[in-house]
Amino acid sequence: MTQSIINSTIKPFKATAFHNGSFVEVTEQDLLGKWSVVFFYPADFTFVCPTELGDMADHYEKLQAMGVEVYSVSTDTHFTHKAWHSSSDTIGKITYPMIGDPTGTITRNFGVMIEEDGLALRGTFVINPEGQVKVAEIHDLGIGRSASELVRKIQAAQYVASHDGEVCPAKWQPGEETLAPSIDLVGKI
Predict the structure, then answer these.
(1) How many other β-carbons are positioned within 10 Å of the β-carbon of residue 34?
(2) For this UniProt entry, which segments traverse the membrane (predicted)?
(3) What share of the chain is helix, strand, coil (3-state, %, to 5)?
(4) What is the per-residue pLDDT across 5-27, written as a single tens digit (0 to 9) for each?
(5) Helix axis angle, 147-162 relative to 48-65, nearest 10°?
(6) How far apart are CA 68 and CA 187, in angstroms?
(7) Are strands 35-40 and 68-74 parallel, antiparallel or unpaired?
(8) In this structure, which of 32, 96, 159, 185 has its CB flanked by the most CB atoms within 10 Å?
(9) pLDDT band per the 50, 70, 90 thresholds, residue 155
(10) Rounded to the nearest 10 degrees, how much is the dihedral formed by the CA atoms of 141, 139, 55, 10?
């Protein structure tokens, strides 16, 4: 049995990303002080991946308004990310950093490396401003993710972080009632 990544602190890394037409360095320090999403996918120039990255791009403005930065990561290089960004209309709309992880360091740090293939599973991690993982979701390669559901999970994580003693029930949406766990609720929900 492995230890859960939930509430663990992100491990150090240093990588190069393609971001808004430039190559930029990204480290774990860039994820501190704000909410972040680290969004792993298997490979550039594939099939399910562009649908997910495009969906994330469509939600990026809303995530930015929530104070969240998005980092997509694959084991491709930053050069490959640039080539994909330049050749695909779907990927061309991405304005969040696309991190290249050809050594697999970041992918292994988050426990999503498929060693025999050198590719990442579809892993999504929400990290709080202190650098702790608050949401971890890992999918098999054939199962695409939904950015709108991710937005809801981040809203819940942010709410819980700023409202001590409250928790968000299933399907909670901002503005809806939350719960305050106590002995009085046991068996009454």
Answers:
(1) 13
(2) none
(3) 30, 25, 40
(4) 999 999 999 999 999 999 999 99
(5) 40
(6) 36
(7) parallel
(8) 96
(9) very high
(10) -120
